[in-house]
Amino acid sequence: MSLNPDVLCLAHLRWDFVYQRPQHLMSRAADQRRVYYCEVPRHDAAEPHLETRQDGPVTVVTPHLRTDLPWVQAERRIGQLLADFLHTEQVRRPLAWVYTPMLLPVTDFFETGGVVYDCMDELGGFCDAPPELQAREQRLFRQADVVFTGGHHLWEAKRSQHPNVHAFPSSVDVAHFAQARQGLPDPADQQALPRPRLGFYGVIDERFDLELVRTLATRRPEWQFVFLGPVVKIDPSQLPQGPNLHYLGMKSYAELPAYLTHWDVALLPFARNAATEFISPTKTPEYLAAGVPVVSTAIHDVVRPYGDGGLVSIASDPQAFEQAIAHALEADHTDRQRQADTLLSGMSWDRTWDAMNTLVQRSLGFRMARTAPRMASHTSNTGR
């Protein structure tokens, strides 16, 4: 068994979706080994097959299945397709890096060299969570060599379910977002918008506090609200509408610093519900690295450490949120930014990956030590 095996990542997020934790980590993993990023299937094919493509060093694998295939049969077919594909690629005993327990059964069709559960979200709190998710996660806990969580609050919820759980909150590529401080040109689709501009980027879904945004936009018609990102799992017609509300669609990771350059305040307008109880928004340190003041609702992993450290303004109701924005528009942020830069200097996705990889190698070493006596015993018995 290798301590640096090829990686088969089983993910619930598409590679070309919003660029976040899986993309950051798997891109770094691919510096040291082959990485295959398997997405959830698309049900759009007459005959099941795998589509593969390269994105830099990562091989993205997309299963295509029949539209009428029930999920139990779908996961069996995906497992068979992956087993054949790994054989063709000469991938032996890959490390299964799992983001969604729902894809775990596909590993029954080939031998793995270890299992990592990177629990970046509490998927059971989302509105479309399948009923089998909890049982699948318990099985994943039993099989995993090591478990990572996407935040401290999530670590507190998972630490009793596995003996080897480690918190790795969202990190940041400081240099990428610090470009926003260099006076990048204003993107064409927000160029004509007046100031002040209050911005948010990310997935707009059931975690987004629609009523908060609607109330703020109504109370402050002179403020321009800019939202970047896809709208999923909610009806777009339910989004707050008005002359000062601007939905500019999904932007690439490379484009974000230019938008941030011309925002006066960055927002985290998350609702308080089951879907947000354990989130650790990647955009919090990204906003700070861009040099933009941040106002957030009282999300646990934003309050600690960012709110407690005075780096992000926390507001628990629309009136307080409005007041926090008004203060952020007028305040001198020199000291706050200096403190933020000090914190961010110890954060990077490179460091996060290196620390994770060290723990993975240690866990695989433990696995080898556990299996070696059994293998030696087997060899001795068969030799008699």
From TrEMBL:
<dbReference type="Pfam" id="PF13692">
    <property type="entry name" value="Glyco_trans_1_4"/>
</dbReference>
<protein>
    <submittedName>
        <fullName>Glycosyltransferase family 1 protein</fullName>
    </submittedName>
</protein>
